[in-house]
Amino acid sequence: MIRAGVLLRWRDRLPVTPRTPALTLGEGDTPLVAAPTLARDIGCAELWLKVEGQNPTGSFKDRGMVVAVAKASEAGAKLAVCASTGNTSASAAAYCAAAGITCRVVVPEGKVALGKLAQALAHGARIVVLRGNFDTALSAVRALTARGGIALLNSVNPYRLEGQKTAAFEIVESLGGPPSGLALPVGNAGNISAYWRGFVELGMQLPIYGIQAAGAAPLVSGAPVEHPETLATAIRIGNPASWTLAVQAQRESGGQFAAVPDEEIVAAYKRLAAEAGVFCEPASAAPVAGLLRLARERPGRFAGQRLVAVLTGHGLKDPQAAIAQAPPLPEPVPAGSIEEALR
Q: Angle at CA 251, nearest 5°, toward 191 and 155?
């Protein structure tokens, strides 16, 4: 099956023109996977996992990036840049390669999973490592692109959110209607804004739960975090660029921001792989950890509901995390003992 891609599939709902290139790597149309044992423990009727790790570069970023890069190409851009904790860099590099645009990526020193940088390098991007955290990197590229001549591909680019809202359309289409509620990880906070935009355009109202890591939870505390810390590198952001839009989405939807400690993220990460068969990066497990925590805090709050948790990135985005959580390999056995060892 040929996947149409976001620009063609949702053309009537996107800001495209006849001059917008028909760019695609086959993004979108990601599956909803049922997670019955997690639903049981959350206390809801159904829990569906929106597996965004099945996008071309392994994360939800591809939905918005295809629109942003296509519009940059339409505008005649020859050079594009982004600040990234990893997933944005991989997606930007891939779509820039397909569009013939030179890509530059600025990453914070020591704060990015190597698997994500390997993708960006493979696609031909030049990496600049900056002293400081993600917020420092984003400020630097925003100042640079404000001078003109370079396209900015971070989620502050409005075309990114336009592409990302298409996941909301897919959920409603797949379920035959809106879910009772939706949970997703929140880092730079563009995605929560995009999902809410999608549901609003469909005329639908449902609570959206934005889940942050406890060590990087500015939207929960209401104040920027100067030195965010969490093993969930994709959401290790202390001052979200889309803060205002995210708060608006949370309030208008009747949802909630919540924070979960790393140990609960890791527990959900393991359960998703072992019980639902879905291998995601640690940040993607945060919404499931968040729903489990909210359910413990108020038993019965999700009774009878059909919930969706958005898993934003594939587990191979951060193989170091998987290796760190894996048990040691057993001692080797002689060939003659293989039957006994397999019992």
A: 20
Q: Which amino acid is at 105?
A: V
Does this model's pTM top 0.70?
yes
3-state class of 63 per DSSP?
Answer: helix
CATH of 6-59+160-322, one of 1.10.1040.10, 3.40.50.1100, 2.30.30.100, 2.40.50.140: 3.40.50.1100
* C-beta neighbour count of 270 within 10 angstroms: 14
Helix pair 243-253, 190-201: axis angle to 10 deg: 40
User: Both tokens of residue 111?
Assistant: 């704060």
Give residue 111's pLDDT: 66
Domain 61-158: give its CATH architecture.
3-Layer(aba) Sandwich (3.40)
Query: What does the alpha-carbon distance between residue 25 and residue 179 come to, in Å, rounded to a whole number?
Result: 28
Q: Sign of the CA dihedral 337, 339, 342, 343?
A: negative
Residues of the chain with pLDDT under 50: none
Q: Are strands 46-51 and 181-185 parallel, antiparallel or unpaired?
A: unpaired
Could you tell me the residue ranges of all domains in the chain?
A: 6-59+160-322, 61-158
